[in-house]
Amino acid sequence: MSSIGFSLVFACATPFVALVTLAALNMDRRDVFIVTGAVWLANQAVGYGILGYPQNFNSYAWGAAIGIAVLLALGAALAVGGQLERRGSSLVATGATFAAAFVVYELALYVAAFWLSSSSSAFSWPIIGYILQVNALGLAGLLVVRLIAAYTGLPTRPYLHAASRC
């Protein structure tokens, strides 16, 4: 549901990094890939079905590039989060996992831009800063929702330790 809401509000600035950060820190590997795929698919469905993304090769290729970038960001989140969770600080693990996933996500999209058409300003500092801001606010919002859910007694999964992931 959050993916659909984020996609409607932010369109191409959906906070994928925030979502993969929390998924990597709170889910087992199988579920993390299912959720990540579902989030990307929901984003594409909203984009093409509701927001009227152009239906041409370049648009489809960018959708695929975003999907690949999200999976690469997830890989970074799993690697960094798994290493840092063993050391005990969930705040440090969350921040570092988010930072690693964001850098990998942006780099993957930057590389894709060499083959796909995009605006020359798509990777300007103001745009990257905006995407970072959207993801940071998305992460903060999702953490608040998680805390409220835990406080009100709704079932939440505690942060998993890397050793317990299969």
Radius of gyration using CA atoms only = 16 Å
Low-confidence runs? 1-8, 160-166
Strand proportion: under 5%
Question: How many distinct helices?
Answer: 6
Work out the number of β strands. 0
Q: Count structural domains.
A: 1
Question: What structural category do the secondary elements indicate?
Answer: mainly alpha
- Residue-averaged pLDDT, rounded? 85
Report the biggest beta sheet as strand number plus sense, adding barrel if it closes: none
- The helix fraction, in percent, is over 70%
Shape: globular
The separation of the N and C termini measures: 26 Å
How is this structure best described in words?
The chain has 166 residues and is mainly α. It has one domain. The protein is built from 6 helices and no strands. The chain has helices at 2-10, 16-26, 29-49, 57-85, 90-112, 125-151. The longest helix has 29 residues, at 57-85. The chain starts with a helix and ends in a 15-residue tail after the last helix. Mean pLDDT is 85; it is low at 1-8 and 160-166.
